[in-house]
Amino acid sequence: MGNKKFAVSPGFQKGGYLFKPEQLAVLGSIVGADAKIELTTFNQLYVEMQEERMDEVQVRLREVGLDIQPAGFYTKNLIACNFCRGAEEAGLHVATLLDRAVAGQEVPSPLKIGYAGCALGTSEPLLKDIAVVKMNEVYDIYVGGDAKGIKARLGQLYAWGVPEERLVPIVTGLIAIFQELGKKKERFWKFVERITIEELRKKTANPHVRGS
């Protein structure tokens, strides 16, 4: 067997994705001298190591509280703000549910989902493929952001005034449509342009839009 890659994160939590020193110590001590550990832009470490030892290593990493996800063309852990307005006001419990619902799903190209607990948007959510912004007691959802290249783009407003109980179904519905209709290696913003935001709204069970 050769080498294989997987993703490691400390799991979604208030204050961001914070590795504990003892977690990193365990990771460094068990993956092997030939392993490669890459820091990604989506709050994960990619670990490339001998495939025959991956199962035992992943069991040990989970024992110290680390989250294991597949690497490659999958949805990533939620990229969120630091909840500076407080866990309750910024919707930490909702963000936690959203992270659990979206991470690790196979998609045509890697998918980043951003979350901000208020309109300040310190996590730069509108530069993510899908963005969720808490606006008082409801949520706005944006699609098609992109931070790469000299032509970076902001996401388009897809739904607004979304109540808490409908947030996860709407976001997972967007992922499902991308899984069904996206082309291999098609960036999500290109997918949105090709399908059009109007068609996305039709295909994702008519998401709540205030004033519609």
TrEMBL record:
Q: Which Pfam families match?
A: NIR_SIR
The terms under GO molecular function for this entry are:
heme binding; iron-sulfur cluster binding; metal ion binding; oxidoreductase activity
- Which InterPro entries does UniProt cross-reference here? NO2/SO3_Rdtase_4Fe4S_dom, NO2/SO3_Rdtase_4Fe4S_sf
Top-rank lineage group of the source organism: Bacteria
User: What SUPFAM superfamilies does the record point to?
Assistant: Nitrite and sulphite reductase 4Fe-4S domain-like
Residue ranges annotated as transmembrane are none
- Keywords assigned by UniProt? Iron, Iron-sulfur, Metal-binding
Please report the stretch or stretches of sequence annotated as the Nitrite/sulphite reductase 4Fe-4S domain: 102-204
Q: What is the protein's name according to its record?
A: Nitrite reductase
Source organism of the structure: Paenibacillus hemerocallicola
